[in-house]
Amino acid sequence: MKMLACAALLSLGCLALSVQAEVQCSNQNDRLAPTTPMSEFALHEDGTTTHVTTGLVWMRCSLGQTWNGTTCTGSASTYTWQQALQAVADLNSGGGFAGHTDWRLPNKNELNSIVERKCYEPAINGAIFPATPADWYWSSSPYADDATGAWNVSFNGGCVLASPKTELDRVRLVREGR
Question: What is the C-alpha to C-alpha distance for residues 111 and 58, in angstroms, rounded to an integer?
Fold first, then answer.
């Protein structure tokens, strides 16, 4: 159901813009301007990146993958929403990542801010977030109309939809920059 709704949004007409920026896509719509150009991110050797616009620090790999100094290797894990929250707590209590123990699930707006609208399948800048599956990712935002749901973002086509918390989706973590 989510993919059908997402496909309907992708079929809407798009505004053609001609802006040059560094975006790495497997598939791209050349009529669209990049929404996450390299110039808006500071890449760090520890497998993180800072989004200059928001100040947020993102893990470049999805949970379950490993940063090898160049790219993300392995398979991104899937979690229910509760499992995703627990995975974050376990990561932080187990020593964290890149020297920090304040990682969290992003809210739906934060997660949506790293969708690359020019790209699809996956809808993310692969130069910043390599080897990202074209799949759904959990946000920390519960769905207000139904306590059994939470918001997630598709990195297949860039949609934001609510899903049952029991669904298995992927996770990318964020922390506040300092």
Answer: 10
pTM passes above 0.85 = yes
Neighbours of 59 (CB within 10 A): 23
d(CA 72, CA 23): 17
Least confident range of 9-18, 55-64, 79-88, 146-155: 9-18
CA 138/CA 100 separation, integer angstroms: 21
DSSP state, 170? B
Reply yes or no on domain 2-7+23-176 having CATH 3.40.1350.
no
DSSP state of 33: P
Please name the helix (run of DSSP H) or strand (run of DSSP E) that holds residue 89, with its range, or none.
helix 81-93
